[in-house]
Amino acid sequence: MDLETGTFTQALRGHTDYIHCLALRERNPEVLSGGEDGAVRLWDLRMAKEVQTIEVYKHEECSRPHNGRWIGCLATDSDWMVCGGGPALTLWHLRSSTPTTIFPMWAPQKHVTFYQDLILSAGQGPCVNQWQLSGELKAQVPGSSPGLLSLSLNQQPAAPECKVLTAAGSSCRVDVFTNLGYRAFSLSF
């Protein structure tokens, strides 16, 4: 969309059902989308064209038919992507379209992000999960909501000591983590 004129400049078509999540790649003019159809699609924004599709639920090691095939969260970091939802939370190598790590989390995850050498995830449960890239659970930090739907990590490159993680979910509170090891306080609305 052109923000000055308010007109659409391109449309990306390919999903067969609604889209749950988007992630921009850092070094490439590309965006990833995950949807109810169970696919993660990689789009080249220069050409407004789909360049790769990963149907996560078709990979037996990721599939969890009892949860469905929807993709509810995804994040990207260079040549890597992590996604989850109905299928298990999984780390993928994008160039080869192969799953490399399946995280042993029973509940569907609703939000995921890369942070340094960790993956942070949250979903149907009160905890922010901190994962090693190997799939080992490093920590589960409890929040105040029974289920977490959104994580936001504020990182200032000029002041790394100012990192703040916020988590929101199925309550009227937003949890604030000034240290990723514990919840510092909650804002109530």
UniProtKB/TrEMBL annotation:
A Pfam family hit: WD40
UniProt keywords, alphabetically: Repeat, WD repeat
Name of the protein in question: THO complex 6
Residue spans of the WD repeats: 12-53
Similarity remark: Belongs to the WD repeat THOC6 family.
GO biological process: mRNA export from nucleus
Record organism: Phyllostomus discolor
PANTHER family: THO COMPLEX SUBUNIT 6 HOMOLOG (PTHR44411)
InterPro entries: THOC6, WD40/YVTN_repeat-like_dom_sf, WD40_repeat_CS, WD40_repeat_dom_sf, WD40_rpt
Superkingdom of the source species: Eukaryota
One GO CC annotation: transcription export complex
SUPFAM superfamilies: WD40 repeat-like
